[in-house]
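Repro:
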Amino acid sequence: MDYDEYLKKLQEFKTDEQSTDNSDDDDINFNGEKISDDNISGISDNGNYDEKNCSTDETDENTEESPKDIPESKIGLLTDSDDIKYHDSTYEIVSKVGYLIGVPKFHFDNENEVNLKSDIYEELDSEKPAKIIRNLSITRTYIERNFGIINKAFRNGASSLWSMEKYLRPEVWTPFSEAMNNLLKEGVNFQKNSTVKLCQYIIELNRLISERINNCKGYFPLWLNWNYLKDLFIMPNGLKEDGTKKAAEIYYNNKDFYPYGVYINWQPEEEGNILYNDKKFITLLYYWHKEVFNELSRVSDVSDYVRANIYDFIDKSKKTVLIVDCENSDPFKLTAALYDLDDKYLEKISKIILVDDVHTTSAWKILEDHMTIPVEYNLIERLKEDKSLVDQKLTVMICEEYFKNDADSFILCSSDSDYWVVISSIPAKFLVMMERNQCGPDLKKALQSKNIFYCYLDDFYSGNADEFRFNTMFMEMENYIYDNMNINIYEMFHDALKYARLESWDKAERNQFFNKYIKTIQMEIEDNGDVWLKFKKRK
């Protein structure tokens, strides 16, 4: 669909969400307690910015807030409409984003909130770059949410943010001070003296975040547009007082729309929980940048129904063989599907048989290096250049495994209807894994008529096969380099001495030159892709 259709469809989604919002219900905090409007500090739409203190006139100077004070009815919890629109999604990216922007830990530990994974929290919490960004984000959020009371304390003589304990409630001060302590432990100090305006603290935090956020790029997959994600952390014009003023006004007037009440850079709308799952978050992230995200398999996961059928098939088999038509299967989708299944059931598969043709991808040749299951690779040579023999050989191998090697069950990976002959002819059990766009309706109808379960490789989470993809690329690039550029630097150095008439150099001088200029050889890549090897010459 084009972009206009996409916007129309997304607007329909938002209308559905808004129709389910119980905005008239009493606000309830995350402790299950009823809270009234006067317990939530904020700024009215006509609040004026106080240039002297970088604050707003109507900020409540006597009310503190933490992100957990945002009522559940406003935070955008998991809704039925979201479950329908963004079903079968992964949660890895939203968990990492949630950690970095400073979502409170109890959301990760709450078993009723399935979207934020505690194992990812623990993983990132052991990484220094991630921990620094998280604590910078938490500190910025707490200052923004309690700007009025902190600013008043500063005007009344408080010497620093460390003096805020007597001004803030324990449930606000504890996570606030923990974040500042964590930053000190990591060698990050943003504190200014009390003569500096409070907004200068925000400016310093913004500077530190903008300098360090790229250190977290490696936690996310390459296919995800990092610049889109990075923008969430960068306050626009955040190194100037005007920028902090504008960001504060947007935040104060729309706090209920921010994910879990924490500050991010976006144009807030009532989107529900934008960290509901990876499908929803990535779809919105690209939408905010006027793009459509089309690679949903990157953030999709197969349904529990499909998994249960695969596990049941393996469980009820005496000996299962997974056999692959390499001409009609995608090695990366297959690898992703196998990685996505429970090891307990994969161990019951006796072996993987690959039946390959000379004209398929080289990835099949290294699949064995990425599998714990024994892999038998068979490259089938052609008698005629224009005629593949893969389908005939695969049929023969199925029969051999059934009649000679006592295999009673086969997981067949292929979208080719030619195998219906063998499927319908021997009394073995079959499960078929195919690709959605490669298989016609006739084979599906035939499988259904015999109650043979089939599933789509496209539906499995594909992000876990990145290492296999990269290794395949490295293999092909190394082969290309070997075929097109084979240089021996010792031979080059020997010939250079000979033709330069410098064979009289003594051993020490030769070694010094070799170590300084040849071992430090550099590669330069021009805009057209041409590669040059250049020496680091004397200045």
